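thread from #wetlab-drylab

HS: before we spend reagent money on co-crystallization trials with copper (II) ion, can we at least see a predicted complex? here's what I'd submit
DV: go for it
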Amino acid sequence: MTTTRRTLLIAAAAIATAMPAIAHDYTAGDVAIGHPWTRAAGANGTGAGFMRLRNTGGQPDRLISASTPAARTVELHTMIRDGDVMRMRPVQNIEVAPGETVELRPGGFHIMMIGLTAPMNQGGRVPLTLRFERAGEVTVELAVEAAGARGGGHQH
Ligand SMILES: [Cu+2]
């Protein structure tokens, strides 16, 4: 086997291994939910849920709440700059305009899970129910990534 061919095979194997984590999307009405994920965290701690929300319809929609059996309290948060530090602040809802995509990501909007009822272990899945004003309710699974993950390995 030539070196080039071996390299290609290794690359193909790496892609195949990564596939199950990447193909991970949901829809609720006109809202497409792309790759919901979170970071590994211990019991009683806090976790943040991230995902991409795309409104494929013609009307504005809003994420109005979320819940999970994995945490005692769930809030919608954003990050704001306060002098030199970034602070989390609860928001009433997260609006997704028609045709727009809103990215929930580290440093921005996120779904705050407070008082984790069990550890969230890397490689696991955590159910999270999202409630939209128009699109209604959908339960997605957050893919649990490494504690310091930025989500860069799973963008699509
Ligand atoms: Cu937060």
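DV: Residues 61 and 96 are 5 Å apart (CA to CA).
HS: ok that's useful, forwarding to the group
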